[in-house]
Amino acid sequence: MYRVSKEFHFSASHRLANLPDDHPCARLHGHNYIVVVELAGERLDNHGFVRDYRELKPLKDHIDDTLDHRHLNDVFGHDGVTAEFLAKSLFDWCRTRWSEVSAVRVSETPKTWAEYRP
Ligand SMILES: Nc1nc2c(c(=O)[nH]1)N=C([C@H](O)[C@H](O)COP(=O)(O)OP(=O)(O)OP(=O)(O)O)CN2
Ligand SMILES: [Zn+2]
């Protein structure tokens, strides 16, 4: 099995308003998010690719247009925009376009990662 991945970046604010008031993440704050999309395949195409990284450009456009420099509670219309939620949401968006997508990972801080892998 081959696995390839590409990294995307965006900055956004959020507030996990369902957490207790004394939890720091219940307050308005922001992250420099990192998103890694992983694709898997048993076979390579004629160019030796699982899929050309350049074909993932629509994901960069989607992130830039809908998430970058936005308030994520407003974007999604709820107060639970966790890293886990973003990983699943971006996985679903990618999977409708590229069948090889096998996982999406999201980092909010240099020390934390959430992954969605069905
Ligand atoms: N499982 C999850 N836990 C937390 C999430 C999340 O999305 N999934 N999100 C947050 C906060 O939004 C934010 O990411 C803060 O995380 P935290 O690790 O507390 O960040 P710090 O930089 O403050 O960590 P230090 O250990 O103090 O450096 C919280 N939890
Ligand atoms: Zn946060």
TrEMBL record:
Keyword entries, A-Z: Lyase, Metal-binding, Queuosine biosynthesis, Zinc
Which lineage ranks, top first, belong to the organism behind this chain?
Bacteria, Pseudomonadati, Pseudomonadota, Alphaproteobacteria, Hyphomicrobiales
Q: Does the keyword Membrane apply?
A: no
Say yes or no: keyword Zinc present.
Answer: yes
Which protein are we looking at? 6-carboxy-5,6,7,8-tetrahydropterin synthase
Which Enzyme Commission number(s) are listed?
4.-.-.-
Cofactor dependence: Zn(2+)
Q: Name one Pfam family in it.
A: PTPS
Q: Cofactor note, please?
A: Binds 1 zinc ion per subunit.
Q: In which pathway does it act?
A: Purine metabolism; 7-cyano-7-deazaguanine biosynthesis
Q: What does this protein do?
A: Catalyzes the conversion of 7,8-dihydroneopterin triphosphate (H2NTP) to 6-carboxy-5,6,7,8-tetrahydropterin (CPH4) and acetaldehyde.
Molecular-function GO terms, alphabetical: 6-carboxytetrahydropterin synthase activity
Coiled-coil regions listed: none
